[in-house]
Amino acid sequence: MRRLKVIISYDGTHFSGYQVQPGERTVQAELERVLAIMHKGEKIKVTASGRTDARVHATGQTLHFDTPLSIPTEKYHKALNVQLPRDIRVLSVEEVANDFHARYSVVGKRYRYIWSCELIQSPFRRHYTVETNGVKPNVEAMQEAAKAIIGTHDFSCFCAANTSVKDKVRTVKTLQFEWHGEELHMVIEGNGFLYNMVRIIAGTLWEVGVGRRTIDNLALVVASEDRDKAGKTAPPQGLYLEKVFY
Amino acid sequence: MRRLKVIISYDGTHFSGYQVQPGERTVQAELERVLAIMHKGEKIKVTASGRTDARVHATGQTLHFDTPLSIPTEKYHKALNVQLPRDIRVLSVEEVANDFHARYSVVGKRYRYIWSCELIQSPFRRHYTVETNGVKPNVEAMQEAAKAIIGTHDFSCFCAANTSVKDKVRTVKTLQFEWHGEELHMVIEGNGFLYNMVRIIAGTLWEVGVGRRTIDNLALVVASEDRDKAGKTAPPQGLYLEKVFY
Question: Where does substrate bind (chains A, B) (predicted)?
């Protein structure tokens, strides 16, 4: 058996998220369906770095699986892309040691969140950004408020209530805002993220940017360890899992 | 009655083209459905600069209609965008003289055609560009061959067979290729275009770019006035109606 590390990109618009759910179209289900075809019906279990929610995108989701097939990785790569639907693309296939684990070996992740701040959101961007109806936030304030988030903290305040994870201490390494034309990007990198953490951070810092929350408030939110003190969870279609570090 | 000139953008992916067709989702049908709501059931006929095919996009389609409503154009604009589906956006609403006609007053149009030339097409671009599987054409050759198209010609060679138009003389004012990262854009402007003309030009010049047709061949194609001498019709999802000139 060989272990393969596979990096994929997907348009999350028409998926009920990454993880298999009975009766739903998911990224994992599509991958395992195609692998079963390639393995003559044998079930090949795919393990990803983590799940993504419905409508959330990925430009660098990473996964592994074990395969008895000895075909070269390049051919594997092509065969996967031929069989997969067009909203999932395999970017790379690499043979790795058997102790590589797409989830347990993760040392960091980078996410991107995009708002489209033009007065009328382009119809071509409706599934890929969150519209602000022309509101342009105070990005300097958002960047300043982000200082309270960068570092190692118990991030219970930014974790969706419905989670079974006990240890909520994570390290946010960088959190930067960038304008790309009239689209505002938030790029966040850390050693791990709790359920909905990036979307809750995006929603909370947005409130700072539009003057509904002060810069100083962020330190109180983090210290509170209370989800109710943070802002709204920003919508899924603005979020991209961009890179997984090992 | 006031006449309004309206500029719209639409993502053509989920439309069976611009023009009303029974039982199909079309841009015109959506516009007229929304106008009927705004006019309490009264049918308001919309006239566009011309039709676009299924999956073809627009960033500057232009249309007119007559309305008995006296609400300000700004409010009209907002009301339309509130009611319209998200894959159609109204970019502007302007009151015009009653002799303005979205189709008959046209003096020119600009189209854009986009190929994505990266090895693996981004899943986010699958509906908005045509993939070349990593093939990067010789753009200098395409630009040189385009010289045979620029100017005033009978363009029967670039007109789909199923058309009722008699006079096929048109003037192509400019035809330029531009790289935007790994995406190749063809921008073409002229006083008018025959049915499928831009897509047939794109398909024919592409053949020059990949060495399947010589630069010199283009003059023969144009002179032949024979559709069969030109190349394949390029796929619809790469095409954008960008601007209509009056």
Answer: 111
CATH of the domain at B67: 3.30.70.580
Q: What is the ipTM of this complex?
A: 0.94
φ/ψ region of B123 (left if φ > 0, alpha if ψ in -120 to 50, else beta) reads: alpha
Q: Are B129 and B38 within one domain?
A: no
3-state SS string for chain B: CEEEEEEEEECHHHCCCCCCCCCCCCHHHHHHHHHHHHCCCCCCCCEECCCCCCCCEEEEEEEEEEECCCCCHHHHHHHHHHHCCCCEEEEEEEEECCCCCCCCCCCEEEEEEEEECCCCCCHHHCCCCEECCCCCCCHHHHHHHHHHCCEEEECHHHCCCCCCCCCCEEEEEEEEEEEECCEEEEEEEECCCCCCHHHHHHHHHHHHHCCCCCCCHHHHHHHHCCHHHCCCCCCHHHEEEEEEEC
Tell me which chain B residues have a C-beta less than 8 angstroms from the C-beta of A10: 123
Which of B10, B122, B128 is closest, CB to CB, to A9? B122
Question: Are B112 and B150 within one domain?
Answer: yes
CA A228 to chain B, closest CA, distance in angstroms equals 32
pLDDT over 80 at B162, yes or no:
no
What are A184-231's pLDDT values in tens digits? 999 999 999 999 999 999 999 999 999 999 999 999 999 999 999 999
